[in-house]
Amino acid sequence: MTLQDIENIGTPHEQAAPASAIPLVVALEGGLISTPVRLEALAAALSAGEGAEALAILLRGGCGSMAAEIAGTLPLVPETVRLIENARAGARPVYLLVPERLLPLGGALAARLGPIDGLLPLESFTASPSAALKEAGLGPVFDYAGSATPKGGPWQGARQAFAIGMTARQAAAFRKADAPVLPLSAPGSSIVALLKLLRPHQYAKNLLVLVPLLTSHQMGLHSLFAALLAFVCFSLTASAVYVLNDFIDMHADRAHPTKKRRPFAAGTVPPALGLSLIPLLLFGAGLTATVLPPLFGLFLALYVGLTTAYSFSLKKMMLADVTVLSLLYTLRVVAGAAAIGVDMSEWLFAFSLLMFTALALTKRYVELSARLDRDLPDPSNRDYRISDLPVVAALAAAAGMNAITVLALYVNSETVKRLYAHPALLWLLCPLFLYWMSRVLLLAHRRQLHDDPIVFALKDVRSWLVGALCLALMALAA
């Protein structure tokens, strides 16, 4: 049923009670909101660093003290909201059906929706709808909106029920039983939404594991195969980390101008489904890593540990977050060297660390400048202030320029003279990187940069041109 179809819902049957006397009873979970409250509250507690509260929510259910925290950001089912609006337009009473443990959240959501006539306890309503309605001063006839299964539930006894997330099999069962149940919305979680959650477009970052393959001149089939397996391992692991990070951040993401479209934040993928992918992805990465040297597995485990620490706490620490991000990118390069069995160049390590620090700082600059332009307050999930913008910009420029200095020192080293037949050509890498880094900083200042500079580079034609020229110079120098 589309939103347009809902416009025609609510007209009374000729044999029924007057329309204005028939209440619309909307289930809180599975009706007004499609995601489990426990997981929403758990994410809010983890994001706030409330470990004890998160544990209590896991053990006891409900939303603990997080009701006020999550009520303003929970994604509401649009079809249900439209149904409520139609009922109001017809002067019909609207009641929320709420479990007793969620009454504080029900009250907060009722205030968010506007005039809601009251809350009905789910437990007593399920036991006897007519008794619960009578206690609220209502007649026995009601319409229901929420989850519904052929086995039964609060919808039984309704004049008309509107099912949220009804599958085709359930719809067929209701039709066969001639039950007064209409599908209000189909189940969510399309393949597109799940893929968006895994962020496969970010896998390009894992091409960094191939860098040692190029710089060490180890281009045999065995080394190439090992590097590709390393790429697969990091891609699977990165997806698992993205799912966890998006779960923890989903409430903050809903207040962000672009991140609000992420699947968890937008409500297009249920958190339970998304979280179930994490162990599968990590198992796949671990199984693939067994083919590679043990040192690679150690670096992969370190990557998982660092990213988990980043998701839970380090990303909230000023400058520690960008340091960890730069280490995570550099760790891909180090792991790539371990995968093919070559020593990591100290020059490459220093260059990577400084360059990725510059890009991480640029990302923070873009996020802060976006908040400044939209007149938004300081971010609640980051230890940065909008007034930090000039310092963040200066640090990004300093790190980027120092990376190019390290590159120049590397080009002048004895190592390059041993590896390359025409090492003088590599000096041209310095102006190319200088141009690219300076352009990234200027575009960030002009508000023309994607909030992730690495993703921007993958879409930017000039960045591709600079990369192609660098590869050509390295090939000619060899």
UniProtKB/TrEMBL annotation:
The chain crosses the membrane at residues 224-244, 264-285, 291-312, 319-341, 347-366, 387-412, 424-444, 456-477. GO terms for molecular function: transferase activity, transferring alkyl or aryl (other than methyl) groups. Keywords: Cell membrane, Membrane, Transferase, Transmembrane, Transmembrane helix. InterPro entries: Prenyltransferase, UbiA_prenyltransferase, UbiA_sf. Gene3D superfamilies: UbiA prenyltransferase. The keyword Transcription regulation does not apply. It is a multi-pass membrane protein. One of its GO terms (cellular component) is plasma membrane. Its main location: membrane. One of its GO terms (biological process) is glycolipid biosynthetic process. It is found in: Membrane. NCBIfam families: PRK08238.1. This is 4-hydroxybenzoate polyprenyltransferase. It comes from Gellertiella hungarica.
